[in-house]
Each structure stands twice: as structure tokens, then as C-alpha cells.
Amino acid sequence: MAFVRKIAFGGAFAALMSTTSVGYAAEQVEVLHWWTSGGEAAALNVLKEDLAKQGVEWLDMPVAGGGGEAAMTALRARVTAGNPPTAVQMLGFDIKDWAAEGALGNLDDVATAEGWDAVVPAALQNFSKYDGHWVAAPVNVHSTNWVWINKAALDAAGGKAPETWDELVAMLDKMKENGITPLAHGGQPWQDATIFDAVVLSMGGDFYKKAMIDLDPAALDSPEMVEVFNRMTKLRSYVDDNFSGRDWNLASAMVINGEAGMQMMGDWAKGEFLKAGKVPGTDFVCIRFPGTQGSVTFNSDQFAMFNVTAEEAKAAQAKMASSVMNPTFQSAFNVVKGSVPARTDVPNDAFDDCGKKGMADLAEANTAGTLYGSMAHGHAAPAAVKNALYDVVTAQFNGEYDAATAAKELATAVAGAQ
Ligand code: BGC
User: Fold this and answer.
1) Could you report the per-residue pLDDT of 345-360, keeping only the tens digit for each?
2) Starting from the edge strand earliest in sequence, which strands make up the sheet with 371-373, in order?
3) Is the same domain home to 264 and 208?
């Protein structure tokens, strides 16, 4: 009898506990993101664990697809159904577009209490704020004009990292002679566009700005742009036959295992190398795309907070935003993610050599006025223009247009999308 009572009491106690934990669970965030590769998931865990410590429950809504296009389509469907997630990984102009629709909440209280204005670079605030109000919390700064080279393949090809376009081509030729795929690439529009960012920048920062940010028709259809497309055609000749549709992290894996020589990709690629236990300087080398040294095309992942009404949900959003902006967290997360902190006051001690270079490059470009938003990752122009640019870049990469026609098409497509 006593035994039965004990069990009954145990059951009631368990029920009470679970009611209590449901109470806590009211402070939860549903997070839509596209961090599904090995390196990305490892970085995301740093955030999940940080929030768990504060009693905020994480409801995961992963939507695979680098660059986040699929995630943005899923988001639109959720909002249309009247059920937006609480927090969404978002890039650049997409944040502004959602804010303009009135869909985002307001983070001013936490931003003011924590002094975000003083520590977040202006180039990022430009996207984190709408109409003077904080609507998103930036978790990192990535940049797209990087090349990731397998160290053994580099050594076999002469050992000197290329600094100019001609040296790059010579190295790719040498890697081909050495019997490996010179360039690991995945044929998806956003990946083609990521290389395009770097190639446009290699024609000069002023040119990048005129073409990708000012969308000047005279720069879009210009001799420089024809040269950009000629370079894209040249790069296309170094990818393997199976490149079409390949995910970016599988291209990274080709460089990691020595099947390919290099990948031209944002520094999220470094997360894959680290996850595979590889060490910069020993197993792989990071360089700026030859001809773009001193300039940076950046993109920043931010968590945009959608409008919620429940007080618990608002509190959970504020806790998440505060966690994301914590300097200790920004160091721990970005060390794993491959990116650099979105605040200027985070020490670089914990970062590897590529991370330290990333931080120094960003600061230098910011001071020199050579920090530009990445077109491929939504920081140069709104989605409609970005998608129009993607179409032409991918069509040309796949041989649909010659270089001169592509430059004309680019100007036409941008005009039509504005
Ligand atoms: C995001 C990165 C992400 C990459 C590949 C980029 O747009 O900014 O955080 O790792 O896409 O998925």
C-alpha cells in the first residue's frame, strides 16, 4: 500500500515538474536558419547551448541551402500562413524588406541597455536598424573574397600563393598538370555569384561599387565587365564534370581531402576545414582572391526578430538577442563558424591565423573605405536585383552567353528588376 502511494506521489510529482517545465518552455524561440553543414551545425550548437543555459528552449527550423534562398522561401510561406518563426537568420537587404513590411519586432530596449550603437560597425547597423530602430542582432561578419587552398596541393604547385590573376591562372594550370581538379565548385546560382563577387572586386573596389552597389548601367555593361565574364569562363574551365548542383560543403570536402586544389568561397568554408580537424597554415591556406587584397566584400548573418505578442515570447527574443551580442559568445561562435565578430571590441586571441587575418582585413577595409556589401549574399542590392544578377551570372557560367552579351544582359536585367 505504502509502495503504491509512493508511486502515486512520484507520478504527481513528475506531473508537477513537467507543468513547471512547460512554464519555462513558454520562454522559447523558434529559429529558422540554413546552418545545416557540419561546420555550420557545430557553430549553431554554441548558440543553442548558450540559450539552454538561460532556460530558453530552442525549436529548430532548419532549411538547407547555402546562401539562404530556400530558407527565405520557407519564411515567406510561414508569414503568409500567419505563423512566423520568432527569430530568423537573415542577410542584408532582406532585413530591410521585412522591416518595411512591418513584420519585425523592436530590440531598442536591449540594444540601448547594452550599448550596441557604440560597438557594432556602421556598415552592419545599416542593416540591423530600420527607421532608427534595432530590428535584428548581428551574430557575425563573413566575407566572400577568399580562396581556400589545400596546402599539399599548393606545395606541389610551387608553394607560392598567387597574388595576381595571372599567378592564379598559372597555379590552376599547374594543379591540372598535377592530376587534381584545380577548382572545387558547386554549380548553384549563389555559388556562381559568390565567385563573381570576387572577380568583379578584382577589377577594383571602385568598379565593384559602381557596378554592384550603385548599379550604374555604364559599369554593368562595360569593358571591365566583359573582362569579368572572360575570367568567369576561364575559371569554369578548371572545375570537374560533376560540378552541377553540388553543395558548397561537398566542394569544400574535395579540397579538404586533396581531390581538388582550391575553393573560392566565403569564410564559412573554414568551418568545414576546422570540423574535419584541419589546421590553417599546415593543412590549408587562406588568401584573399588574387587582386582583391585590401578590399572586403562582406555579409553579416543577423537574427531578425519577428513580431510576437506574448510577453514570454518577447522576453525570449530579448534574451536571444542579448546572447548573440555578448562579446564572449561572439568570440566562441565565430571561432567555430569561420566568420569574425560583429562587434569591434572582441579580442582576437581565440582566433586562428585566418580568423585573425579576417578581423584585421575587415578593420583595415572599414578605415580605408574599401568595405563593400556582398552582392551574392544580399548586402549590395535588394533580392529582386540580386536574383536578376544571379540569372545572368549562372547562364554565362554555363556557356549560354559570350562575355560581351552577358555584360549587356546584366545591364538589361538590372534595369528590369529595379
Ligand atoms: C551565410 C553563412 C552560411 C553560408 C552557406 C551564407 O549566406 O551568411 O552563414 O554559412 O551562406 O550556407
Assistant:
1) 999 999 999 999 999 9
2) 142-143, 296-299, 371-373
3) yes
239 and 187 together in one domain: yes
Q: At what angle do helices 38-53 and 311-325 cross, to 10 degrees?
A: 120
The H or E element containing residue 356 is helix 353-368
State mean pLDDT over 185-205.
Answer: 98
Tell me, what CATH number does 172's domain have? 3.40.190.10
146 vs 298: CA distance, rounded Å: 11
User: Do 197 and 339 fall into the same domain?
Assistant: no
The size of the chain, in residues, is 418
Within 6 Å (CB) of ligand 1, which residues are found? Answer: 34, 40, 66-68, 91, 142, 268, 299, 301, 377
pLDDT of 15 reads: 39
Residue closest via CA to ligand 1's atom 1 equals 67
Q: Per the domain annotation, does 44 fall within a domain?
A: yes
Give the distance (Å) from ligand 1 centre to CA of residue 30. Answer: 19
Question: Which range of residues forms the domain containing residue 319?
Answer: 13-142+300-354
Atom of ligand 1 nearest to the CA of 377: 7
Instruction: Assess whether 206 and 329 both reside in one domain.
Output: no
Single pTM value for the model: 0.93
- Beta strands 296-299; 142-143: pairing state: antiparallel
Ligand 1 atom nearest the C-alpha of 248 is 5
Per-residue pLDDT reduced to its tens digit, 363-399: 999 999 999 999 999 999 999 999 999 999 999 999 9
* Mutation probe of ligand 1 site: the residue of 270, 300, 301 with most atoms within 8 A of C-beta: 301
Q: Whose CA is nearest to atom 5 of ligand 1?
A: 66
Judge whether residue 17 has pLDDT over 80: no
Does residue 242 sit in the same domain as residue 331? Answer: no
Residue 133 and residue 158 share a domain: no
In 54-115, which residue ranges form alpha helices assigned H by DSSP? 69-80, 92-100, 108-114
pLDDT classification of 26: cutoffs 50, 70, 90: low
Q: Within this chain, do residues 223 and 342 fall inside the same structural domain, yes or no?
A: no
Has residue 124 been placed in a domain?
Answer: yes
Query: Which atom from ligand 1 is nearest to the alpha carbon of 338?
Result: 10
Atom 11, ligand 1: which residue's CA is nearest? 67
Mean pLDDT of 119-148: 98
